[in-house]
Write a structure and sequence with these properties.
Length: about 200
């Protein structure tokens, strides 16, 4: 299951980064306490199984657990963008996968489902048949094998941001719902769309 939130986007001002690192690190440590608690989380196996089932090498894919563990080890977080930073704070806490795209560069019809094969015009020629990909009428936006399509991520010139929140098997329903609701509330979402196997296509915004 995956949720999409359309939210306003604007770059940080001159002093906007000031509290971001402290907020992200405080929330991360409050949620997981130690590196061991992250390494022992059962979602390691859930993410591994999720990607292995679509013939994607699990070790080649970044997951919220890998990212949270890396940030905790470094005891440092580099602010990226106001919307991204809120999403990363929620991701590290809940271990639901977030990605943030430029809402102005995403088409009206988004689909999350198995790929038919390589993408011809979107720079993702190595996408494997059956791999779960995010796409729109313009092509593939993200695949586990290839990552994000060039030019699709949110940036300082984006007027809107499209957030994707992924729920893999093994993630509790209330954890996923809580992550989506928190992001929607904190980022003033204009629209929320939830796609599932039964409803893989929809419009957001």
């Amino acid at each position: 299951m995956t949720a999409f939130l359309l939210v306003p986007s604007a770059p940080y001002g001159a002093v906007g980064f000031a509290d971001t690192e402290r907020r992200v690190l405080t929330r991360l440590r409050a949620s997981h306490q130690t590196e061991e608690s992250i390494r022992e989380n059962p979602l390691w196996e859930s993410y591994r199984s999720f990607y292995a089932a679509m013939n994607v090498k699990p070790s080649s894919v970044s997951t919220p657990l890998k990212q949270a563990l890396r940030i905790m080890r470094r005891d440092a977080y580099r602010p990226i963008h106001p919307v991204v930073d809120v999403c990363m704070e929620i991701e590290y806490s809940t271990l639901c996968s977030f990605q943030v795209y430029d809402g102005d560069r995403i088409g009206r019809s988004v689909v999350y489902g198995p790929a038919d094969g390589p993408g011809a015009d979107d720079g993702m020629q190595n996408v494997r048949p059956g791999e779960l990909v995010l796409s729109d009428e313009h092509g593939i936006i993200h695949s586990p094998t290839c990552g994000n399509g060039a030019g699709r991520l949110v940036g300082d010139t984006s007027g809107a941001a499209l957030i994707r929140v992924l729920r893999i098997p093994g993630t509790a329903a209330d954890t996923f719902t809580g992550a989506v609701d928190e992001a929607a509330g904190r980022l003033s979402a204009a629209d929320v769309l939830v796609l599932s196997a039964d409803s893989p296509t929809g419009k957001c915004g």
